[in-house]
Amino acid sequence: MSDQLLQQLVDEIKDIKVSMATKHDLESFATKDYIDQVETRLSEKIDRNSNQIVRNTEHLNDLSESRKRHDKILEILSLRSIEQEGALKS
């Protein structure tokens, strides 16, 4: 082999070594078990949040119904007040 070809091979090997992940680099990567644990925790949090959203929605619906009843009562009382005022003026 020529010296130039050998030098190219040496340079390529050096480039590969520089860009190759080391054992230390790999230790900082997440393991499958860790990812599974994170996924489980996130799933539990999502379930808990979903349940809370359902409860909040039900509570809001109850409040909305209550407000509608109160509005209807206020309307009836207003009409009675107007009728009574009219009766007093007559």
TrEMBL record:
GO biological processes: methylation
Gene Ontology molecular function, alphabetical: methyltransferase activity
Tell me what this protein is called. tRNA(Phe) wybutosine-synthesizing methylase Tyw3
Q: Which UniProt keywords apply?
A: Methyltransferase, Transferase
